[in-house]
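Hi everyone, sorry if this is the wrong subforum. Our group has a chain we'd like a structural model of before ordering constructs, and none of us has done structure prediction before. Sequence below.
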Amino acid sequence: MKISNGVKPVIKVGQIFLTHPRDQNFTSVYEETFSKQGGAVYLFAVIEVAETGENDFSGRKEECQKLARAMVSTLKRTYIALPVINEEIFEKALASVNATLARLASREFAYLLPRLNAAIGVVFGNTLSLAVCGNSIVYLKRQNELTLLSEGLASDQVRPTKLFSNYSSGRLAPWDRVLMSSRELLNFLSLERLQEFLAEETLEEACSEIIDSLGDIKDTGFAAYVFDVSPVHTMATARKPPFLPAIFRFPKNTVPAGKIQNFLKTTWAGVLTVLELLWRSLVWLANFIGNFFAALNRKRSGGRYRSKKYLVTAIVLIILIFLVSLAFGAWRRHRTSSVQTQTEITNLIEQKLSEGEAALIYNNQNLAVTLAPEIETLLQKLASGAETRPDFEKRLQDLKNKVNKEFHVENPTVLATLENTPTNLIHSPNGFLAFNRNSGRLVFYDFRTGSTRQIFQNQNTGNLSFGLYLGSGNGFVFLGKDGKWQKLNPDNDTLTLFESAPTENPAPSDLGRAKSLTVLGEDSNARIYILDAKNRQIWRLNVDDAGIAAPQAWLKTNADFESSLAIGADNSIYVLYPGKLDKYANGTKQNLAISPIEPPAQNLSGLYVSPDTASIYVPDREHSRIIVLSKQGQLERQIISTKFRDLADIYVDEKAGLLYAAASSELLQISLK
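Answer:
Right subforum, don't worry. Here is the predicted structure as tokens:
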């Protein structure tokens, strides 16, 4: 629901500001609230000046502070000076900020502007207005969706006279949560983890989770604002407090949490009602018996009194004996039933274990996978002191080990700690290019020297969408969000336009916003395949000496790629979804089903396959594993490691028996032999 024009929202603000002595960037945050036209005006600014690489940059922090003060004071002065706040005031404020920056650029501050990353936001009434420059970002979390509000607002070229070139305004809704930050945050937190943190119930928990996850990073600072929006009638809290006390709350990721808590709420209310009725009945019975005997004592009528006394006593004893008999009979029936149930459970476990062990003998992997969780559920119902329990547990563990085909890697080799958290690894004969699609940040790991180096350290590379290696002749090639191809030279930090082959059918302008791409072959024999969910198509682009040709529709059947994640290719094309893998050959879908896996493969996160690999490798970030499948979909191995936290992308060299993985900010090497 939207906040109506007559309802004033309440903004609750959380700040994330972490600095370290070794951080060469300058960061600053600003937030202020004042009254205007009977309402509150909320001003926000997150400012970062990237390091220059000069030895004396730390001595110029005062100039950066002057730059930040000039920006925020101009913004505030504009809103205070104008008598009426309307839709055009934010545009006027940006014009004033741009004019201030232009004046500073004409003096000694000119060298700072190309390195300036800033996000400015203003909330008045139910409207958020924002602008960004450089690599800054603004995200909106509404319900369960995370949206990049700042997309397309920053210009790729730095113009001191108009540093903030575009702005955006929109209505806020109750329970919205907004994050303003420098893009540096996305180099160390994946979008999935950021969305998880922003989904916390309270603003304090969300900020605390983000700060805790960044606590181990000692050479980079972070600056961000997170604010919640709520209607005025819920001013005390931005989220409704849960009904049940903390002892009844369930861990996160319990599904569905709301239904479980509602069930507990109803059950607990019913239990309290029953207990109250029992207590009232006992009190009434005690009062009745007491009053009855008191009345008898008052009569004191000789033998008549004594006979009534004996009669009442006999009746009470009979009732007690009857109740005890009922209780004893119920206990015996329950005990007999329990013994019978335990015997049935024991026999059923034995039967299913035998079936599972026989299934493996006959290579019926699917049946064994199905039986393992059933046996585990039955074991939970078996008494902890049962004599057969230890033997059943050992047999079940042996069955699971054979079914799951787990290969545990305790200490993989850490080749490098990267200066970003990559989302993609791009392999070349000389090393890996670690690329973060969210921030555009690039780091090159050189096989020859074993060292890493940041590429385009002080340039805005947020326009880059996908990267690949096209062979020694073309090197690294990137597709931008504008649909244009560029060559990257990591040795001299240059991006040059990659000429496209002449064609009457140019590439769609939104090709750079497709889901994924992959490449077969090298140089003039290469073929690029792009997974396009919007147009429900897989495009093929041939590469020759003239450049990259226009895309041709490769898919010959209808397909829904909306929830697809990645594409891979050997002699066929593979499309990965969170819980399945589709295979296409000659433009048509083929039969392929992943064999059952325990735990189930329901949230897969990546794909690697090539003509040089005999298997398909599927990273599963949720379970810190890499699933290895045959090209017919059968489980071959599960590579598991505690180092696979935030597993992003992999590269496999089966001939050398090596697997490389980007996990969090580390580049790992694992031996497959």
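For your construct planning: The chain has a mean pLDDT of 82. The first helix runs from residue 61 to 81.
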